[in-house]
Amino acid sequence: MSGTYEYRGLRKEILPAEGKLGILLPGLGAVSSTLMAGVFLVRKGLGRPVGSLTQMSRIRLGKRNEARYPLIREFVPLADLEDLVFGSWDIMDWNAYEAALRAGVIEKERLEPVRGELEGIKALPAVFDPAFVRNLDGPNKKEYANLMEAAELVMRDIERFREETGVSRCVMCWCGSTEVYQEAPGNTIFEDLDSLERALKESSPEIPPSMVYAYAAIRSGIPFANGAPNLACDVPALTTLAIESGVPIAGKDFKTGQTLMKTIIAPGIKARLLGLEGWFSSNILGNRDGEVLDDPGSFRSKEVTKSSVLDSILRPDLYPELYGDYFHKVRIEYYPPRGDAKEGWDNIDIRGWLDAPMQIKVNFLCRDSILAAPVVLDIVLFLDLAKRAGLKGIQEWLSFYFKSPMHRADLPPVNDLFQQDEKLRNTLRILKGEMVIDHSGLDYYEQDHEEEDSSS
């Protein structure tokens, strides 16, 4: 039953992935350089894209007895890794090879076969405001009279990139630093496009650099994803502009280390109806992200997205006796010797039968950028797919990749990793006219009834 199913009229005609795809990354640090180096190494057969759904995952189609499990990249028309072209902005005046050496994520010896490709990607001057990132500075910054002019400079960079590389399409993904915490609700400059554009012209101190990039991308008709807990495009003015411009957007804050573990473990606790007394999380990391998060303002942004996932998974409103009063604390410590090798410690106090106390302890020794690189790859490839399928506005089906996923204002976010995975795969099935799969087992009973009908 291939290509014949239509779910609520949502099956889409998807334009082919013809030509080169430009990947534009504000922030040429550890994540961006690791992604670029990884793609170049995979192209040469010198590495595998482990952790990437778009490159390695299969998707089940139809009933279980049909045994149809194509690779996702063979099922939907995704851009090929050979067709990716990279561009970036950063406050440091370096190229991707220098950035990769500085990050220390991939060994120098392993970078040598792709050194030429990496050296060819030089960071463009960035839009930067030290009020939003207090622990970093650099010489490679744009000069502009106001923030609207800054956005126009970014749009000119995009147009120049298109002309020089010959790409047919672009996607932008924020891989820059975590900005100081902001709350959007009630702020009138974010409510509509006229107010936001007026604020850009007036260089409102409430507009962060990430929002300048988001505005420039959406105005240029380019899908935008936000990999940090910044506001960026998560305001009514830009979500509305994205819909009106036919641009898909997604975010926010890549789900890579400790929060990934939370969205795996918490659904298990909830599924077995175990009580939760408290969850203490501590992190140490020493890369540029850790240096930025050493500032309390930037840490607050990360703390909010890290802390927000449990309530939506556990639903204390529905199970107050189990989850109505748990204690949750998150700590992040900058520890330079650790570099990109982030370590997350979790102590989870739970209760079982007759409220007997138990504990779960997790020590996740992970590599921050190694986990983030395939996430960025999947996000940009899926956003390009969404654009070619005519999808626009917030792409909730990409919640799988984010700590604090953007969502409809009238609905709660989905943070359960397994629900997110099912939502992503069902969206792909719908786009291609395949039946939605809910793992209910009804196809088993339908098969039995079909056999009974045929025998009678």
Instruction: Write the H/E string, N to C.
Output: EHHHEHHHHEHHEHEHEHHHHEEEHEHH
Fraction in helix: 25-40%
* CATH level 1 name of the largest domain: Alpha Beta
CATH superfamily of the largest domain: NAD(P)-binding Rossmann-like Domain
In the residues, how many domains can be counted? 2
Note the overall shape. globular
How many H/I helical runs?
18
What would you say the CATH architecture of the largest domain is? 3-Layer(aba) Sandwich
Reported by name, the CATH topology of the largest domain is: Rossmann fold
Arithmetic mean of pLDDT: 91
Secondary-structure-based class equals alpha/beta
Major sheet strand order: 2-1-3-4-5-10
Number of strands: 10
Strand content: 5-15%
Structure description:
With 456 residues, this protein is α/β, with parallel strands linked by helices. The protein folds into two domains: 21-254 and 369-431, Rossmann fold, CATH 3.40.50.720; 258-365, 2-Layer Sandwich (Dihydrodipicolinate Reductase, domain 2). 39% of the residues lie in helices and 14% in strands. It has helices at residues 30-43, 53-56, 72-75, 96-103, 108-111, 115-119, 147-165, 193-201, 209-219, 236-245, 258-271, 288-293, 296-307, 309-314, 320-323, 368-388, 417-431, 442-455, and strands at residues 21-26, 84-89, 169-174, 224-226, 248-251, 275-285, 327-334, 343-351, 357-365, 393-394. The strands form two sheets. The protein has a six-stranded parallel β-sheet with strand order 2-1-3-4-5-10, with helices on both faces. Strands 7-6-8-9 form a four-stranded mixed β-sheet.
